[in-house]
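Predict the 3D structure for this chain.
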Amino acid sequence: MDKKMPNVSIITTNWNRCQYIERVWRSIESQTHRNIEWIVCDDGSSDGTGDLAREAGAHIIRHDTNRGYDQTLNSGFFYADKSDYEYVVTMDA
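Done. Predicted structure below.
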């Protein structure tokens, strides 16, 4: 029996976490599960976090100013809710 792998959205909230983006992306890429979208919520970073994540293939949600963890996470959930992915996972940068 061939089971379809579920689609999974991974949300990371980020504020000036440029130094961790590559490591997070390598972690996601190393998974055997392949039906993944990576949503990076850039909470007003000034260090290029969002740009680097975009280059790695992430969907970017950008806040112009720092709004805090809760609002940033909610932005990620709002975006994920509009996609056809079945599960949502949060992951710290």
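DSSP finds three helices and four strands in the chain.
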